[in-house]
Write a structure and sequence with these properties.
mainly alpha, globular
Length: about 300
């Protein structure tokens, strides 16, 4: 599926920016599934253990594709510290995501994720001097407002008191790491193929998470885990890691950081559909107003020049 997606994007007659947009549309759909499934198993396995295994599987999948398409070159291994930086940021994001999902509802957590375009725009300016136009800033503000509406469950009193849940707060720290990760891809990339660059990043994730979560890995009773936990591990390894890592790196080389992360605005909408499909019901109607704002923000960003 990863190779097929890549071939479709490369072979299409779309412009390079349009290919980046197509990649991020698929990215948002796949990421949403990790929120819905992750919330169902977050209390059943330590986040570091889950993510160490998921990235080991993901690295194996991407590694096999790299070997099948020419392998790694000496150029790909230049300055391996770059992969450790990217892998470290990615690892922090995912561990804190699953830690936050222990208490944060999946739609609310997805709304926190939609704050990353604002953070990514700031990081893009600091690291790459990418400028956010007035139109894009307005779109980010609208999207951020929609995200806050969902995070505070459409409760004005909770917003004024800034009563944010512990899970949402933990996950927000992870989103800061993700926002830095996006422009760092463009900053550290030295012409490597997206697959090779992704493989180096995933290998670094395995190293970081194995060291970070060694005690959790040893303490986990792997044979006793429920089928749902294993389904979640396989899903996040193949679809929400292998595929999305390639997609976001593919898009980051064709779009500004703020536009890449703009597709996170679709995540709450996808999560709602995932929740309904998994039989977990839909959020209160009042919350849907915030979701609508995030979709409006995405529309504005797609029109931005």
């Amino acid at each position: 599926m990863i190779r097929a997606a890549g071939l479709i994007l490369k072979a299409s007659r779309l412009s390079e920016p349009a290919k980046g947009h197509a990649a991020m549309l698929l990215f948002s759909l796949l990421v949403a599934g990790s929120f819905a499934l992750g919330a169902m198993v977050a209390r059943d396995i330590a986040p570091t253990a889950l993510n160490a295994v998921r990235f080991a599987i993901a690295a194996g999948v991407i590694g096999a594709l790299v070997m099948a398409t020419g392998g790694m070159t000496r150029k790909d291994w230049q300055a391996p510290w770059r992969y450790l930086i990217l892998g470290g940021l990615f690892s922090v994001y995912f561990v804190l995501m699953f830690e936050g999902l222990k208490t944060a509802p999946p739609v609310s957590a997805a709304a926190v994720f939609t704050l990353t375009p604002i953070l990514s725009g700031l990081a893009g300016w600091v690291l790459l001097r990418q400028v956010t136009t007035g139109w894009m800033a307005a779109a980010l503000a609208i999207g951020g407002s929609g995200a806050l509406w969902v995070i505070f469950r459409a409760d004005i009193a909770a917003f004024l008191a800034f009563e944010i849940g512990k899970g949402e707060a933990i996950y927000f720290v992870g989103c800061i790491a993700h926002a830095i990760y996006t422009p760092m891809i463009a900053k550290l990339h030295r012409g490597e193929r997206p697959l090779a660059f992704s493989f180096g990043t995933l290998l670094a994730c395995v190293v970081v998470l194995t060291l970070w979560g060694w005690s959790d890995l040893r303490a986990t009773e792997w044979a006793a885990l429920s089928p749902l936990v294993w389904i979640t591990i396989v899903y996040v390894a193949v679809f929400a890691s292998s595929v999305t890592t390639v997609l976001v790196q593919f898009a980051s080389l064709r779009l500004p950081s703020a536009k890449v992360m703009a597709y996170t605005y679709l995540t709450p909408s996808w999560v709602i559909l995932w929740q309904i499909a998994l039989g977990n019901g839909a959020p209160p109607a009042a919350v849907l107003g915030g979701v609508a704002l995030t979709v409006a923000a995405l529309s504005m960003l797609l029109k931005a020049r």
